Amino acid sequence: EAGVAQSPRYKIIEKRQSVAFWCNPISGHATLYWYQQILGQGPKLLIQFQNNGVVDDSQLPKDRFSAERLKGVDSTLKIQPAKLEDSAVYLCASSTRQGIQETQYFGPGTRLLVL
Amino acid sequence: AQRVTQPEKLLSVFKGAPVELKCNYSYSGSPELFWYVQYSRQRLQLLLRHISRESIKGFTADLNKGETSFHLKKPFAQEEDSAMYYCALSSVGGGNKLTFGTGTQLKVEL
User: Fold this and answer.
1) Alpha carbon of B20: minimum distance to chain A alpha carbons (Å)
2) Of A45, A108, A109, the CB nearest to B97
3) pLDDT 10s digits, B15-69
4) Which of A73, A36, A65, A31 is nearest to A48 (CA)?
């Protein structure tokens, strides 16, 4: 099966500009996650969707970050305006459940550099 | 609050030597523990989870609730094991979000 797709793979912007990332999960996966991975750190969850509803956005900086999954499939993550500290890899993951076990499958990530 | 600690940023071993990647966690409830791996130029992928109690690519990990540890072990390192390893925790019944450690870079030298 095709994996989680993300675009763009790389993005360079100046601070205070806006940027958007796109994610296409594995077909049939109801749950979608966005993680932020700053250099030298592990991924940190930003937001979790179940179909088109938000399950957890407690760590999303809502003054500048927004995310949507309108039709319960693709998702976009936006940053407006960007700050230098937003430089990171943004990972999208989708998951499926088999019995009590859930497995998250990760996309290749979008590497963002804010200058 | 959930927390995962991986004390080593880099672990270098010789081929054929035993490997142990350390992971400690703090969580007040019933956690589910995972090891994820990222090989060079590849995406992050699940290596193993504690509830499966299985060996993947020769790696095993045992959950020790008394010591709140989930160390990853392999008796004989191979060159292809060189990668970034992340320990992660998920709360059982808690939405399945993952809390990751900072990762350990394993380098297997010939």
Assistant:
1) 19
2) A45
3) 999 999 999 999 887 888 999 999 999 999 999 998 887 888 999 998 998 999 9
4) A31
